[in-house]
Structures are given as C-alpha cells and as structure tokens.
Design brief:
Elements (H helix, E strand, L loop, with lengths): L5 H20 L13 H13 L10 H35 L12 H8 L16 H14 L9 H20 L1 H4 L12 H20 L1 H4 L5 H20 L9 H15 L9 H30 L12 H43 L1
C-alpha cells in the first residue's frame, strides 16, 4: 500500500476533467476557468512523484534501468496517442467529405505525423491536431533529459534539472511572446518551445525530490497542512485571474512548489481500493490519461455538430452558461467511454504484451 496513492489517483482524474473544462471555454469570452491551465503543471509534478522509483538511481545499472524506463514510457504514451490521432484523422476525413467544407490548414499529413510522434515541443503547428498533446511532448523529451540526471549523487542532477527548467521557462516567457500571447490578445500560451520544456523540467524535478524523500516528509503530513496546501493552490489559481497583461503566465514560476506541497500532503490519504470510494478514485485515475488525450478532439467535433448560441457571449447569459455546461458534461462522458474502451481493447493488451517482452529481455 505504500506504493499506492489512491487519493492522488482521483485527483489526477479530477485534474483531467478540469483541463477539459478549460479547453471548452478558452475559445469563448468566458474567462472564469482561465486559470485551469495550471492543472497541467499539477500533472507534471505528479508524474515526477509517481515515476521516481522507476528511474535510474545510480550508474551501476544505469543502462538496463534506463532502457526499461524508456520502453515503459513508449508503452504508456503511444497506444493512446495512436488511437486519438487515428480518431482525429477519421473525423476530419468525414467532415471533408462534405463538398461545402473548407480544408483546415492545421490538418495536414505532416502535422498528423508530427502530432503522433509528439514533436509539438519543436513543431508548434502540430499542436493544432490536438492541443492537449503538447504536454505529452514536453514530458516525453523531459523524461529523456532526466534519465542521465537522476542517478547523480546527492540529487545534484535533479537540482540541475530544476534550475535548467526555470532558466528555460524564463527565457521562453520573455522571448516567445508573439506565440504565447497575453491577456489582451489571442495567443497559444506557454505550450511549446523553451517555455513548455521549462515548465516540465522544473515541475517534474520537484515531484522527483518529493518522492525520493517521502519517508522523511511523512513527518509533516497532517490534515491541517493538507487543507493549507489546498488553500495555497486556490490562491495560485485566483492570482492568474488577478494579474493581467504580459505577466499573466508568471504563475507558472510558482506552480511547482505549490503543487508539490499538495502532492506530499495528499499522498498520506489512501482510501481502501477495495471499497467504493477507493475503487472510484483508482478507476478515475486510470481513465485520466484517456480523458486528457481524447477531450480536445471531442470538443472540436462538438463545435462542428452543435452551433454556438447567438452573440453576445456575456457572462450573465443563461443560454451560454447552459450551452457550455452541456458541452463540458457531454464531452466528459464520451471521453470517459472512449478512454475505457481504448484501455480495454488497445492500451491494456499492448502494455501487457510489452511488459512480458521486457521480462524476457
């Protein structure tokens, strides 16, 4: 049970649903969920926390452990990415079968290939296929960058990774403004180039350190600090909406320390996975990757099928509130169904076969 973090499983699923909600409203005039982009930073911290035991711990077995880690990451990422990319391609072909449909410049064969290969970090045009996959691109290349670092003694490598992340984040936020945008103009946000890589490196590193020293940090785990950590996280989300202009993404500098505080405290609470609450949290965590991977494709498809209400998009409009709520709930349900079926029919079988092959190796 020490390696099972049931509450964190449920929080991961909740975070995936919150990112879905953010993407459902981000293209409208409703700014109420604008700060929910920070849940991706929570994913990065949680990923480092979960993956730390499987990463190289010293250089004596570095080659074998590194190879096993990379192959496991491939088995984790690409079955779902392949299924989601295939669905996006099929939906687009169906849409283009309408003689009145205009081709979308984002949906080229090159972008589909680059999206499948998770090259969004270097080729932002591929993000147009599925906005959510940029974080998988950042995590994949961030994982590769950390492999030679985690085995260095006294955590020098991990600390170096965190510092590298902050330098990359600072450089990206200050030199890629045309791509990122700000509160007053449309932009893509810090989801490519140095800023995306920096977010992952810094936050993943915080997660690694938290898991490595969890046995010592258990002394400060209690319900009161857990509540304090949630309050601090709430302030982080609120602060994004408070500050406007070019510094709107300054919150990414603080996301790592804040979310690692939450993760450390939440790791202490593990409902029995055999009972309904623990089982529900574990199941939601299992579905989280599929929810995250599928939801953008489903949101785009929803907008092609269901027309937007009449303008204006004012916050007090009950019509728009009802439209967005229906969109979020419908997309979430379909994403969960697709995540479950993909895990059962594609992802699960491929991962089981891969693990058997790794044992033989």
């Amino acid at each position: 049970m020490r390696n099972r973090f049931v509450l964190l499983d449920g929080m991961r699923g909740f975070a995936a649903l919150m990112v879905l909600s953010f993407h459902a409203v981000v293209v409208t005039d409703f700014m109420h969920l604008d700060s929910f982009y920070l849940f991706v930073d929570f994913f990065f911290v949680l990923s480092g926390f979960v993956l730390q035991p499987s990463m190289p711990q010293d250089f004596k077995k570095w080659g074998r452990v590194s190879l096993r880690f990379v192959l496991n990451r491939i088995l984790r990422f690409w079955p779902m990415v392949a299924a989601v990319t295939a669905l996006a391609w099929i939906i687009y072909q169906i849409q283009q079968s309408d003689p009145n449909a205009w081709p979308d410049e984002n949906y080229t064969n090159t972008n589909f290939r680059n999206s499948f290969l998770l090259l969004q970090l270097f080729i932002p045009a591929a993000i147009g296929i599925n906005w959510a996959l940029w974080s998988l691109s950042a995590e994949w290349f961030g994982n590769l960058a950390y492999i030679p670092l985690t085995g260095i003694k006294w955590n020098v490598g991990i600390v170096l990774g965190i510092i590298t992340g902050y330098v990359a984040l600072w450089y990206g936020l200050n030199n890629d403004q045309q791509f990122i945008g700000d509160s007053w103009s449309f932009g893509s946000g810090p989801i490519a180039h140095w800023e995306a890589f920096g977010r992952m490196m810094a936050e993943f590193g915080f997660g690694l350190l938290a898991r490595k020293y969890l046995h010592k940090l258990e002394k400060i785990q209690n319900i009161w600090l857990f509540l304090v950590s949630l309050a601090v996280a709430a302030v982080l989300f609120w602060s994004h909406s408070y500050f406007q202009g070019d510094i709107v993404y300054w919150t990414t500098y603080f996301a790592g320390p804040v979310f690692v505080f939450v993760v450390i405290q939440a790791a202490a609470y593990n409902p029995d996975p055999e009972r309904w609450l623990g089982a529900s949290l574990t199941w939601l965590g299992k579905m989280s990757f599929g929810i995250y991977a599928y939801h953008v494709v489903l949101l785009i498809t929803y907008d092609h099928i269901i027309p937007w209400p009449e303008m204006p998009q004012n916050a007090g409009s009950k019509v728009w509130q009802s439209f967005l709520l229906t969109k979020i709930v419908t997309t979430a349900v379909i994403a969960i169904v697709l995540a479950y079926q993909t895990n059962r029919l594609i992802e699960g079988p491929i991962q089981r076969l891969g693990k058997r092959a790794l044992k033989r190796l």
